[in-house]
Design a protein that fits this description.
The complex is a heterodimer of chains A (191) and B (278).
Chain A: E1 5-9, H1 13-25, E2 29-33, H2 36-45, E3 50-54, H3 63-73, E4 78-83, H4 88-96, E5 101-104, H5 109-168, H6 175-188
Parallel strand pairs in A: 1-2, 1-3, 3-4, 4-5
Chain B: H1 6-20, H2 29-42, H3 48-57, H4 62-71, H5 82-99, E1 109-115, H6 122-135, E2 141-149, H7 152-160, E3 162-164, H8 165-169, H9 174-180, E4 181-184, E5 187-190, H10 192-197, E6 198-202, E7 215-220, H11 229-242, E8 243-251, E9 264-269, E10 272-277
Parallel strand pairs in B: 1-2, 1-7, 2-6, 7-8
Antiparallel strand pairs in B: 3-5, 4-5, 9-10
Helix pairs in contact in B: 2-4, 5-6
The chains are: A alpha/beta (191), B alpha/beta (278).
Chain lengths: 191, 278
């Protein structure tokens, strides 16, 4: 079951519609944006797993700018850029800036689905590792408290023992006096 | 995958112990196979016996270094377990700054801090960030931050100060991330300023510490757990020698010095413990 949420940004209404239909049919939750600015606004309203964006869009926010905005929001958002065959260099540049993949026009949807599956698998693994780490941290922090308490108790008792030893082995005092002092120490110790 | 025999496990674990002090018992068959297989195959070894002979005979010590890189655990992150860093920020550093205040305003406050198993550097950079946030203007201070690790690969990454998004995103707030790092594509690099505060070098904790000098703070977290009880005793004894009389030792939050080193006394501050010499 595909449970990822995908934001598609493309200024071509036909392509937008196509993405919405094909991805929706595969079970993805799809939101579409007509340009970079709308996509950027949507980024603020809810979390997305993946953004598929055209590199060239009208307005101030193109594909690269959207990629930057998304990565600033969360490094976990994966961005796939769509490019015309002639602008592969820009796509490579986008990947250097953090895009996970690029697709050439016309879109081969089977290829896209494969890539999305890979992203989904990786996200599941990451979540799994995250869950394990969290479980480990809970265990570790609980163990740490126990160990630290024992460490302090042990240290206090060791100090008490050392003091008792000093008192009881003090040859300059008579035995009764030594025992009296030792008892005094024991009854007045702070627990 | 190359299979390891019980005899070979004994041979290899003994060899790893000799070169690194890391003690692996015989139950670590799977760990040995998964971590050493690539190196053994690259060396064209037909067995782990063969691999052992090749590693021993390698005068350049390349194989030895690669084995250490593969075996040593580099699970670490920025501000891993917030306790020690709060301890440094609210207790240890303020106390040390007072204690080390110079007699003349012309002089600088000297501090020496050692991250004894610095792995890929996150711990030491986190300490540097704490100092930077606490002190602001660093011109009145002369602070030496040393990170050591047995793994060349770890030291090399620590020195580069470059981290991928998985290494960076846990533990660091966005605020600290933008203040102390710059992003180059998928990679984050520590600022030159932070980088200039720290020094990393390879060091085996089994060797004598005399070349290192004395430190005001030593962090030795989650590394002694890989050593035998005897080696732990030796390690913390050497650490006691390398600590200033009023210096501070921080160990891993689930570690203990009970029965290991009677020269230290544990002290509690908030939810953390630090150690000082008796």
């Amino acid at each position: 079951m595909n449970s990822m949420t995908i934001l598609v940004a493309d200024d071509d209404p036909v392509i937008r519609k196509l993405f919405e239909k094909r991805l929706g049919k595969e079970g993805y939750t799809v939101t579409i944006a007509a340009d970079g600015a709308e996509a950027a606004r949507l980024l603020d309203t809810r979390p997305f797993d993946v953004i598929i964006t055209d590199l060239v869009m009208p307005g101030k926010i193109g594909g690269i700018e959207l990629l930057k905005l998304a990565k600033e929001k969360s490094v976990e958002i994966e961005v796939i850029v769509i490019t015309a065959h002639s602008s592969i260099d820009t796509a490579v540049d986008a990947m250097k800036k953090g895009a996970v993949d690029y697709l050439e026009k016309p879109i081969n949807f089977d290829e896209l689905f494969l890539r999305l599956e890979k992203i989904s698998e990786r996200k599941a693994l990451m979540k799994n590792a995250g869950d394990l780490r969290e479980a480990m941290e809970v265990t570790e922090s609980s163990a740490a408290q126990t160990i630290q308490n024992l460490e302090i108790i042990n240290s206090n008792q060791q100090q008490l023992l050392d003091q008792l030893e000093t008192i009881l082995t003090n040859g300059r005092q008579e035995q009764g006096k030594r025992i009296e002092q030792a008892l005094h120490l024991l009854t007045n110790r702070s627990l | 995958m190359l299979k390891i025999t019980p005899e070979e496990i004994k041979l290899i674990t003994k060899y790893i112990y000799e070169i690194s002090g890391i003690y692996l018992d015989e139950s670590k068959k799977y760990l040995l196979e998964t971590r050493l297989n690539t190196i053994a195959e690259e060396q064209g070894c037909s067995s782990y016996q063969d691999f052992y002979q090749k590693a021993k005979a390698d005068a350049s010590k390349t194989i030895e270094r690669r084995i250490i890189d593969a075996i040593s655990t580099n699970e670490t992150l920025f501000f891993r377990d917030s306790g020690p860093f709060q301890l440094l920020q609210h207790k240890i550093f303020p106390e040390l700054i007072d204690a080390r205040a110079p007699k003349s305003p012309m002089l600088k406050t000297n501090l020496k801090i050692w991250s004894a198993a610095s792995s890929t550097g996150q711990e030491l950079y986190s300490v540097a960030i704490v100092l930077q946030e606490l002190l602001g203007d660093m011109s009145k201070y002369s602070i030496k931050l040393l990170g050591t690790d047995i793994s060349d690969a770890a030291i090399s990454q620590a020195s580069s100060g470059k981290y991928n998004k998985f290494e960076i995103e846990r533990g660091l707030s966005r605020d600290k991330l933008t203040r102390y790092f710059t992003s180059i594509g998928q990679t984050w690099k520590v600022s030159d300023h932070l980088r200039a505060m720290v020094n990393f070098r390879k060091f085996n904790l089994m060797s004598p510490f005399t070349s290192l000098g004395k430190f005001d703070v030593i962090l030795c977290r989650n590394v002694a757990i890989y050593f035998t009880l005897e080696d732990r005793k030796k390690l913390f004894n050497k650490i006691a020698d390398a600590l200033e009389p009023d210096g501070y030792l921080i160990i891993g939050s689930t570690e203990s010095l009970t029965g290991i080193c009677p020269r230290f006394i544990p002290k509690r501050h908030l939810r953390s413990i630090f150690y000082q010499l008796k």
